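Hey, can you fold this?
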Amino acid sequence: MLNKKSPLFLAVLAVTATTQTPVALSQDSGFVIEEVVVTARKRAENLQEVPIAISAIDATTIDRAGIERAGDYISLIPNVTLVDTANVGDTQVSIRGIVSTRDAESTFAYVVDGVLSTNPNSFNEEMFDVEQIEVLKGPQGALYGRNAVSGAILVTTKKPSDEPEAEVAVGIGNNNSFKARAVVSGPVGEDAAGRIAVSTRETDGFYSNSFTGEKGTVDYLEDTSVRGRLVWNVSDDLELDFRAGYTDVSGGAINFNAAFAIPAFEAAFGSPAFFADPNDLDFNFTFNVPGENEQKTSDFSVKADYSMDGMDLVASFAYTDLEEYLLSDGTSATFYGYELTSQCQEDRATLNSFARPDLFGPAAAPFLVLPSGDPANDFAGVYGPYTPTSCDGYQYQERNQEDMSIDVRLVSNNETGPRWIGGVYWAEIDREVVVAYGADTGNGFLRQPYVPASGPNPTDLLFWDKFDTTVTALYGQVEWDLSDTLELAVAGRYDREERSVDNQVPNVTNSGLNVNLVDPATFAPLPINPALAGGSIPNRSADFNQFQPKVTLSWAASDAMNWYASYGVGFRSGGFNSVGTSDTLNFWFNSGFGGPGEAVDAQLQITDDYDKEVSTSIEVGFKAEFMDRRVRINGAAFRTDVEDNQFFEFFAGPFGLLRTVTTIDELTISGFEIDASFAMTENLTVYGGAGFLNSEIEENRNRPLSVGNDVPQAPDSSGNLGVEWVSSVGSGMDLVARVDYQYVGETHFHTLQGEQTPTIWNAFFAPGFNQDFSKSARDAYSTVDARISLEAADWTLTAWGRNLTDEKYLQEVIPAPEFGGTFNHPSALRGYGLDFSYRF
């Protein structure tokens, strides 16, 4: 339950809502909340009459709230949270407690101008030249396609104008932040109109590297995007809508600090740092391999709308190409894999805990790097990951994807009788995934999946696969008016996904530089992927099918009150982990495989593939307007049952690191949310919102001790509260002031939440060195943003601030149970700046 003294409770007492909606004049009361038109059911409808929980954000709010990236509008929506950490675009969105999983398919459909995006990074691209954002909660697969398990996010960009217009904007902020954008729009010939928008931004970020003394090498960002749109009215009945874009992004990557969670270490060393609370970390970035993430994305789509008698034909084609890599420091120094390399020995001579306490902190609190030269100092100490020495190696990853899709549907356009939609969908997705770990010899880095032993950064562990997915689907919906006040909608979708994976790892041995990856008897290098021990790695394939029905009954109880109830099924395809995942984990962590796992006996049940995820949801909600449309209140209660929930697990050990997708067999999430807007006066609007979740893991064969725990990334409460004041200051100018408060409750990031399980340290020392994640939940946090603007007919000047209280809170905690610790990422600190835009 929500504490009655918590900030969120006080906010809810004041007023509840999701997003501010502009106020319009009315002949009766003088002012009302404007009607919001949404396209959630693939036709234009009044938000208050659509039987779906929707948060809609229009262009005015986008500008006045300073929405520039996905996290900016996610913070305005209760029961929706976002994590953005490892690299640019690596976002995890939790909608009603169902989170989009790293390295698996998303849990929500992301649709831009009516076209479903299959690019995994498109969701977190720069938000500019946008007309409206709609966030739909609950299963939406029947209409919005693959992976719409938890909902759908619909983005509508600004349409080309019939008259010539242009806009330029610039902004500056702290941390050497700069941004600029330009838009040109107007007619192209007699029957077409075009629009081109360009955006660029750069920032040094909030954090600096203590080892190099440089800023702009940790959480820096450089983003340049170009987008074009052409709408051609071929005839009175046919419209073609062309969209194209290109994005080039450079940013920091893997900006984590580690914390131990092993009570036995705390007792043995007498240092609380070995059983630490990640929320109390004093972040210190000291890596000698600054993280870098490079992305280049190209996309193109065309949508055709053709009007016929009684129906419209809507067809779209989309193509996306993404090339991405990231390079960063490694994690395995404490396991001494590269201890005997000349570069590690050389680094330890000058970069040890006694020579550079600024890099490691007090001795054994918890890290201790001993000088080289004395053999007794080798294979001793506690190094930690991401250190200034080369002893931790490096990691390299690629995520490349090329995809195309076709969506064709018929939509009735009749004003009476049943309203219906029927369509087919096809997609072809080719994805390449690389995770490599290797030696840092001090000679620079080749940014490629495999580097031979003779290269500057030899690869010692490699996972490299190409995935091919073919998607076909049939879908439809019919809506009947059972009476003047009752409507029944029945929808369904059948998906089939054919998946295959081809291994790309060369059949070679590693460099032999990592002492943990050689034969203990002969010291000969082992295969570069454990699955090659059998001689070769076979290709794999599997098919996943699911029918997704949805039934909705809505009742217009009065002109001011609408009720609805719905039942729906969501589906997310199963898939494959990189080949060698199971072999690696079995050798190091499970008994019965002849490796260190004999002493660990973690009893993991992780395979090289994972099952499809199916969720079943029921929901009851209402939408109401009172006081002559000055007050709008929407609310919903829901319950979702999920089978084989796909969950990201991170493993670190002597081998380096490993990313996997596992499944939680059964979990349930129930909750309630409410949102409202109150036009207190013609000038003053108050808005806010609150969401509450009650979640439980009911079965988890991979981690049976986690049964009864909270679902990861499902905070029990979240909400926002805001106020916007608009006042004329003469000469056609308005003064606009806006303040937004956000609250997110305590959040667990793993299924284990205090249950002790064995770690790899049991193989090095003795039984009893178990992990305990009872301190590893992210604490509740709250932030305050504010903006004040002067708005004229052709220009706007804005002073803004984000996280004005400089709240220091964790963005993410990644627990690694068999390592016995967590990898933790901080959030952005206080930001402020000045923006100016001019419209021609």
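Oh, and this one too while you're at it.
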Amino acid sequence: MDHTETMTRYIAAFIQSLVEAGLKDVVISPGSRSTPLAMTCAEHPEVNHWVNLDERSAGFFALGIAKEQQLPVALICTSGTAAANYYPAIVEAYYSRIPLVVLTADRPHELRDTGAPQAIEQIKLYGDYVKWFHDLALPEAQPSMLNYAARTAARAVHEAEHGNSGPVHINIPLREPLVPDFTLSELWKPLAIEPPLTGKRKLGEQEVEWLLKQLDGKHNGLLVVGPQTDPALGASVDELATKCNLPVLADPLSGIRAGQHGKANIIETYDAILKSKRLKEALRPDFIIRFGAMPISKAYLQWLQTLDETNQIVVESEAGYREPSGTQTTFLYGDSTNLCEMLSSSMDEQHKSSGEWLEKWQSMNRTAKDFLLTKSDRELNEGHVVSELSSLMPEESILFAGNSMPIRDVDTFFMTTPKNIAIMANRGGNGIDGVTSAALGAGVYGKPVTLLIGDLSFFHDMNGLMAAKQYGLNLTVVLINNDGGGIFSYLPQAAHPKHFQSLFETPMGLDFKKAVELYDGSYHSVDNWDAFDNAVRASYHGEGLHVVEVRTNKADNVSFHKAKWKTIEEMLIQQLEG
């Protein structure tokens, strides 16, 4: 068997095993050394392959697909710095628990550390940001080596998606010639690699009894749902909250602000409420049970750090330590939905919170919510863009929020809705890189995607727009252009005008219409609510890329938010004392 046949059968066995393990999407960054991997994926009848020219964009594009599908997605690149450009997306995938299978082609061992072109050190390139690393052996033709390649691929998929999902890295050295021979017979024959059998980790009756004892005599509790992806959790949390009169503080990435389940106990405005020191004192809970990651709200985090005597229990589906507050915390590792169901059936009157406690939260939430949603008929502002979008977005769609101010405005202004709207963001590393690419990836299977993004984040990933042009992907971009980093205006740095603009605010003065036209997109600049509504509605009925630019003023936006928070505090304190 010559080199080409050996390499072809070896790589074919590897790719076939990925497919049999459940992987169906591969994002390819073009290059030479990765030719056998790229061409084999393009040739395989059951692989959806996406070509993305910029490796950083490709990494986030794959992450977006995996985030929406909740399935592993593979990345393929050539050797050298191409692999280094995947790093930001891999960091994000690691912290946000998104399954990626990263396949980096490499020079063969004899060309490593010799000054050969495009040969960098790729062994454990991503350090601790991958769950598993393996340096694949060079292709060999023996049945045992074909089986080895297949088993390694199957393991890579399993490692990526089970336990806490995350990225894995397989480094694949290849010798020239690199072009496979697809005329060979039986390249896609079934391999029957048996996957490991796994299931959800569930807490037992003993752990539930322990938890109930911890809650004895504690009546004013809270359920907190941070970023998480279990679609069944909303109904289970609602059942538990209803039975026990518990308020539910629901992060926008919790998945429970939208959908058909009950939401009467959900407190969407807790971030605004907890900005008040007096209200924080009046609302101190006896216990907190949290599902998912720490919520986005900084006000909640700071409040939590003052609750020294409050029992906090964090429920994680698998091992993990996502608790940045530094407060005393008990971790329970088990399926959140199952635990809610067990608690609902086990809790009795002695564990039930008072109706007055729940009504206090609900009453404050109603007052804050009504005030937050009251908007000017004429002036556009960043907060009400969110509430307007929630009414305009179609069923079964995705709102992808950029970091910095957009996700915080979603936290404040996106209220509960019966629509099935998935809210997504890159909140693992919380960076501004790759947001557009991730949003495009989330929409490859046809769900309408609305991207709410600031001008700096949009600029940072303009290369990502190539995927929209290349594949005719539909994306509505609501571009909030306040000419720079608006979130810095809320931070102490803003009090130092000498360096503030050049180091933090960083105004760019760019005409984004030209960038949108470069990628064959449709562009609209709007300056009133009617124009905004019409442009957004039209984008949902059109195809391709649609950018609706909303120009705002940073100073006005800061004043708008601070005025809202101050008035809410005054109204709620009066309500509390009256």
